[in-house]
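Translate sequence into structure tokens.
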Amino acid sequence: MDSSLVNWGALDALIIDFAKSENLIEDSSPSSSPSLTSSSLSSSSYHSRLIICQIRRSLEAGNIDAAIDLLRAHAPFVLEDHRFLFRLQKQKFIELLRKGTTEDRGFAIDFLRKSLAPCALNAYPEAYEEFKHVLLAFIYDEGDQTSPVANEWAEKRRYEIAGLMSSVLRAHLHAYKPILSMTLRYLISIHKGFCFQQGILSPISNLTERLLLEERDPPAIPQESSYDAQPFDEVDIQALAHAVELTRQGAIDSLRFAKGDLFQAFQNEICRMSLDAAMLDELVREYCIYRGIVQSGMQTLSERLKVNSPESGCCSSRDCSLDVDYSSSKRSNTETSATTDLSSMQGTDFELRYASDPANNLEDCSTSGSHQSENSRLLRNRSHRAGERSKRKRWRGRHDELGLISHNHFNRCGKQEVSTAMEVASTTISKGVENVNGEEKYEIVLGMKELTSRGMAAEVVEEINALDPNFFAQNPVLLFQLKQVEFLKLVGLGDHSGALRVACSHLGPLAASDPNLLKPLKETLLSLLRPNEDALVTGLPLHALATSLQVAFGKRLGIEEPQLMRIMRATLHTHSEWFKLQMCKDRFESLLRIDSLKENNTPVLTSLPTSKSNTDSCTLGSSQVTISSTTRISDDGGSPNQASSRDVICDENAILKVMVSQLCYLMHDQ
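Result follows.
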């Protein structure tokens, strides 16, 4: 399956927003503490999610009184609705009988007379029939699976009412999941549907099956007064139904509950999907370490996260991996937005897909020296890397200071392992760094990424050649791109002589070995005609090149790319393909920032063709950059015809020889 171009800068913004809004990271300054002091705690949305999670946990545990107390304190409107109150009280009646003692049976009878029966009269038309039916629980025991009230005794009832309360509370309190969480739910859902309909085997099925679960929370129930609402636009109904896999009536009911607000209805429905929160946290942590957003904490990098296949309706391993701190509600009720403005991200980070096959007759450009010189080069940028490391956040993770969160979801079901990129492989590690520990390898790769993003191409080539003299022999396109950066940087500084030396020593020989580089070479040389420093600096997709280099060189050191990068490439590709088949635009892509993740407005340094073998999910690089085909005018002046590949190569080689000879002549004159 092909993969899609991804704006990694936009994903970084979503990741940081998610980590902040879920209180997963903290400042790395010594004054900060692991306690709940993050600014995200003052967010009313964050606090509401905590309360919803604790209400859900109480209901799943059968502690109905605790859930009602929380609802009375934080969401009294739920108890004022007799439909919800009746369901809660009916479940409380069952839980009293479940205890099995004579005393609790007496409490159940008393509760039946004073609370459940009166509420049944005013809840909804079917409530009284349900009330009479549940009385059979006095006669039939919990263990009788053939009884007419077996469903009432079943523990899945707890999860159903817990899911219903969560749906209602999320909608009323606007306590939606962070954008990243909703985006992943949506993209993976489309990915699964697309692969199923097209009969395609998903390359990331081992991840998506565990991350997005089959269970969904029950839908929120529209108020009776809303049934007289005006008819909704059929376009909205169909858009919602297809986006979240609802029936037409289900989409209408969802719009009724949202009072006609399509985007609120969509968020209500997308948050009903069950996502394994523990697995998502680990994927985000892995990505943050790889991208240099948080400190590595290598003492835990060799460990594997144990992820379970949760039971049906299991909140613990799905969406409620949250910690509750009631005192946070007393500190501040002011909402502080943790969302990072995607439009403010400078240098959006697209990967450039590059060919990985070694070019024939490639001139050896390595400058490997002695072991001592390699160590000196490794130490040269250590102070810079230490400075960058100090700017990173600490990964706080989810804590349970009050003991309210159960950790049973790590051993409840059959354990599965999530292999992460943080485990440095022992194979394919370059000999130049074979004695460097795992954390230092991460720092080396991040250092190369940082130098590249700053335009220090010559330093990057020198450092990599010292560490791995064979790297650029196997990645000539990356070397070409780095030398392009060096060339354009020298042109921008007015050093034409230095730029021409780079062209003659590196760009020319590389292009001579690979005809696909001829066109970008000519485009690069044209910059001599318009040496504008500002235009050159802003025109370099340095962040894209930095990410491509990070992925390739990281693999050479045995560092696999994060699983989340694989997920985003595959799901964004199937999202594009799905809406091509639908022949329409996604109504919700802006809401979920999918358009920003696909946004390709970064100026392309060079247009490089790639073979099909370099476009799959395993390719070192990521996003394919295409070029227009070369055409020629026929000798008789007729219509343009596609030139044969041999003619094109011959013509291009002739042009290249002339250009290089002219450049060398100019250089000698200077």
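Note: Residues 64 and 92 are 6 Å apart (CA to CA).
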